[in-house]
Amino acid sequence: MKTVIQRVKSASVTVDGHLISSIAKGVLVFAAVGKDDTPKEAESMASKVLKVKLWEDDQGGKWKKNVQEINGEVLCVSQFTLLASTKKGNKPDFHKSAPAVKGKELYDHFLARVRAQYSEDRVKDGVFQAMMDVGLVNDGPVGVDYRCIDEAVTIEIETNPAEMKNPTDFAAFTDELEDGNFKGHVHKTFDLPASLME
């Protein structure tokens, strides 16, 4: 699941000329459900939306308060286009997005979790799959891009490795050994899975 969270002074959703929802100070959340997402990702994202610190505290400290701490409002809008890819050309490819039925199910689960963790009357919604006119007054502007699970690459380094004599094991360099130790440079290529670069 992916969201783009905008800090706003106000925001609204209109469909066919009819006002559906509006909020004052708070966050406008565009949310997209991926084809491989599960309820766990939706729950994780709901928590992030409410916890992200986008406002100053009373002493002027930056990035100290979240939307709940300022008693702000939340407007959630489904937007599958956040998962678009243009790697193979200029036309957006949406194959990473969930099918409509699954997308609505997990979006509704996400919305329900946001409401359950905050206050139902402070969390508003758009209309799933509708052509929406979304209006906002961005406060800053400030916006953040979140994915459901933060990924990290962990590299473990042995700080007390066993002693090695001539680590290259190249007999051709035996004449360069000094006191039984090889001094020089060793080059090693590591092949990492492409998924780490996504």
Model description:
This protein is of the alpha/beta class and 198 residues long. It has one domain: D-tyrosyl-trna(Tyr) Deacylase, Chain: A, CATH 3.50.80. Helix content is 16%, strand content 28%. It contains two helices and eight strands. The chain has helices at residues 39-51, 100-117; strands at 2-15, 18-23, 26-32, 73-78, 123-125, 133-147, 177-178, 181-182. Strands 1, 2, 3, 4, 5 and 6 form a six-stranded mixed β-sheet that branches. A hairpin with a 2-residue loop joins strand 1 (2-15) and strand 2. The longest helix is centred in the middle third of the chain and has 18 residues, at 100-117. Mean pLDDT is 82; it is low at 150-161. GO terms for molecular function: D-tyrosyl-tRNA(Tyr) deacylase activity; Gly-tRNA(Ala) deacylase activity; tRNA binding.
What does the secondary structure layout of this molecule look like, with pairings?
Elements lengths: L1 E14 L2 E6 L2 E7 L6 H13 L21 E6 L21 H18 L5 E3 L7 E15 L29 E2 L2 E2 L16
Parallel strand pairs: 3-4, 4-5
Antiparallel strand pairs: 1-2, 1-3, 1-6, 7-8
Helix pairs in contact: 1-2
Enzyme class: hydrolase
Main location: cytoplasm
GO cellular component, one term: cytoplasm
